[in-house]
Every structure is written in C-alpha cells, then in structure tokens.
Request: fold
Amino acid sequence: MIRISTIFIAICMVLVAASLGLILYSVAGISGVESAIVALTALTFLILYNAVSMRLRDRTDVGGQIADLSRGTADLARQVAEFGRRLSAVEGKLASINHAGADRIQAVVGEINELGGLVKQLAVSVAGHEDILSANAAVAAPVARPESPPPSEPSVATEPPKLVVAPPPITVAAPEVPAPLRNEVQTLAAVKTAIEENRLDIYLQPMVTLPQRKVRFYEAVTRIRDEHDRVLAADDFLPFVEAAGLMGRVDHTMMLRCVQVLRRLMVRNKEVGIFCNMAAATLGSPATFAPCLDFLEANRALAPSFVIEFKQATFRNLGPTESEHLAALAQRGYRFSIDHVTDLRIEPRELADRGVRFIKVPAALLLDPKASSSSDIHPSDLSDLLGRFGIDLIAERIEGERAVVDLLDFDVRFGQGFLFAPPRPLRPEGSPAADGAGKAPESNGGVKAPAADAPAIEPSLRATGNAALARRAAGPN
Reply:
C-alpha cells in the first residue's frame, strides 16, 4: 500500500514541473511544445532523484537493521554458550553425585556383606555351643546313672536298695532349700514394712570439678532402715522392692526428698544440682510413671538443676513406652544422666538427641588399657567426643590420688568417689544428727542435736578434702 508521503511528493514534483513549463512559456516566450518537453524533463529528473534518494535511504535502514540483527545474533550466541556451560556444569555435578551415590551404595553393600558374614559366624558359634551343650548333657546323663549302681552292688536284693537310695536325697535337700527361701521372705517382709513405715533415708555423695575439687553436684542414694535401725544398701533391697512392685513408690519418695534437698541447697548456691535415680520399672510402667511425671511437672522450675539418672542397660533396651516417657521428661526441660556403664560403645549423637547431658564412667574402666581395644574410641578422646554433643563425662568410683592425675590427662571435668567424700546421710529437721556430725553441745543441755540437713554437707566435704590434702602432704602409706 502506497504511503501518503509518497503521493504528496509525487504531486509536488508534478506541480514543480508544470510551474517550470508555464514560466518558460509565459516569461521566456518559448513555444508550448518546448516548454512541455522541459517540464517533462524536469519531472523525470525529479522522479529519478527521488527514487535514488529513497533507495539510498532504504539501504541505510537495511544496513542498520542488519547490524542490529548481527548484534542480536551475537548476544544470542553468547547466551547459548553460557547455557551450554551451565548445562555442562550441572551434568558434571550430577555425574559426581551419581558417582558418590554409587560409592555409598557399594559401601553399604560391603557393610551388609560384612554383617552377613558376622551373622553366619554367630550362627556357626551358636551351633557349636549347642553341640557342646548337647555333648555335655549326653556326658552328664551316663555320669549320673552310674551313681545309682554303687549302692545296689553291696546288696543283692532289688527292693532294699531302692528304699535305701530314696531317703538320702530327701534328708539332704530338705535343710538346704528352705533356708534361703526363709531369708528372702524375711527380707521381703522387712523391706515392705520399712517402705510402709517410711523408713527411707537419703544419702548424698558430692561430684566435684577437676582439678579444683569444688562441689558442683550431689547424687542422691537410697537407704532403708529395718526395725532394728540397721541400714540396708540399695543392692541389698532393690531386688526385693522390684519383686514386690514397690519401685514406683520408692522413686516417687526419692524425687520428693530430692526436690526438698535441692530447694535448701539452692538457698546457698544457685549453681548446685542434684542427681536422682529412676528405675527402668518406673520408666516403663504408665501407672507408676504418671504420679512421678505430675510431680516433676509441678516442679519444672527446678529442671535445670535436677538431673534424672538411668542405667546404661535401661537406655539400650528402650521400648516405645519408655521412649515416650523419656520424651515427656525432656519436653519439660529435665536432663538425663547415664551410670552403671559397662563398656565404652557409646553413640553420643543419639544420646544427646534424647536429652542425655552426663555420662558416669568408672575410673577403672577409663584407665583400663583393655577398654580401648574393645571400644570404638580411645578413652583419652572420650571427653572431647562427648563435649562436641554437649555431654559432660563424670569419672566415678575414684579412690586414689594417682587415678585423679591420670584422669586429668583424659580431660575429665568431674569426679566422684570415696577419695572426695563417701555418701553421707541426710536427716530431716528434729531428727538425730548423722554419724560424724558430733554430739549436741553442752550449752544446749544435750537435749537437741543440730539437724544435718543438706546445707550442712559442704563443711564436712571441706573437712574431708583437708584430710585428703593432709594425706597427700604426708606421702604414700
């Protein structure tokens, strides 16, 4: 479609040519034919000039467009090259990931094969043990049978020997069996009576920092007094308590007294804490755990200073119920400790995720050279490994100064044992003082002795520490 500007230019050229012809005809006196020829010639030149100028202008425009197109093509080529480079980088990363995944899969397959080999070895060893046991049983059977013929050899008759052989086992077995049974029944009855009459005592043993030996925590230990005021240690009565199903009641009573002691301790020192033991039976029973959880919920303000302690076997045998109860305690801000450690096969990440912040390891186990060969880590590196996950290592059952020096090389921060102080009894207000507290002063008339409550423990610890320092100064015995 012809543009309006082109039509306007054409009209102007015709008018210019016609005007030129009229001027030549009227002014110059040229004839009409000659003026018409001149006008046509002028019109032709104008048309040619316009066509050439338009062609040059179009060529310039086309050159500019071609230059723009070439620049766009170059930009597109650069973008394509950049996309190609990025695509190659992504392909390289995918190849490396696939290679790493293949290596991991091969490693997992190798571990599975090793586990399969171990399982086969275990099956072979179990089968060998079963064969040995069956062989021992087969050997024991003929050994037990020839014992019956000797009494039959002296007598020829068949019936008298049977009458002679039968009575001896009855007379020998009768006095042996009832004696331990009678003792167990008596101990069980005494333990039940002591729990019902609330003759549960709490003993406190300090945990000190190393090497400063400053008291940082106390561990609460349970003791029971019988009707004759004889003290029974935990190892003596706990089996009977668990058999009688009274473990939850004992743990609840201990938590109550530990909270009372902790409140009295925090009056003097806000940084002190207390360790309270909880049995696996209490943790695994919803009926016995519910009152303990309610009590701890009511005292959750003391959670940063109240540490609940479990055995290593309890953590290794956690079921769904125990894990749920443990999570409920951790949700309320309580921290956990592990004691009764028998080996150093410890997974610190898993324990830290469950809320464990302390692990108590016997000093003899840490210093035993055989322990490093049977564990995944050397005992000297155990404290650093646990520290990376926020777990403090406590060396317990320390009984000599040489053990303290060796443990300092292992970077152990806390210690517990008879070297620092033994478990000391805690008496309520108005009760007779604990052993070692001294008699009542004469100014009191000997009527009332001072109560050995929790805040009065630290002076006795300082006295024990001074005695230990005196022994060190005196040299070895």
